[in-house]
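Lab manual, section 2.4: Encoding a predicted structure.

Procedure: take the sequence of the chain (141 residues), apply the prediction step described in section 2.3, and record the output as structure tokens. A sample record is shown.
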Amino acid sequence: MAVRTQEDLATLSELDEKSLLESLSNRFQQNHIYTYIGDILVAINPFKYLPLYEKTVSEKYKCHEKGDLPPHIFAVADRAYQSMLGRLATGPRNQCIVISGESGAGKTESTKLLLRQIMELCKANSQLEQQILQVSIETSL
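Recorded output:
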């Protein structure tokens, strides 16, 4: 049986628990810790350093199309930011990103990465940057 490494598991011909877990496991073994399932990003904590969060990677995920680059937390940040500003076909819309998982899954780290990328994206918009900083401070109290 061929190793499945699809980046969006919603495209699997069999979308059941077994095929999802098998695909996620195969991707994880190849250090692909992010996988889409439609609009959902699944992240598996690698519990080791991977060069996924460097400035060069961050830059690649600014204003990109979803299928152009591999799944990444920066892609989620960019899509939410672009949607909020109305740069996508839907016009300006409020955005919400839900991060959930077991204890130790990396929720706090994912939140930090999301906020860091959004702050990078809104550097030219000081009012938005200040609002995000205020929310970040309030949620950490």
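Check your result against the sample. The two ends are 50 Å apart (CA to CA).
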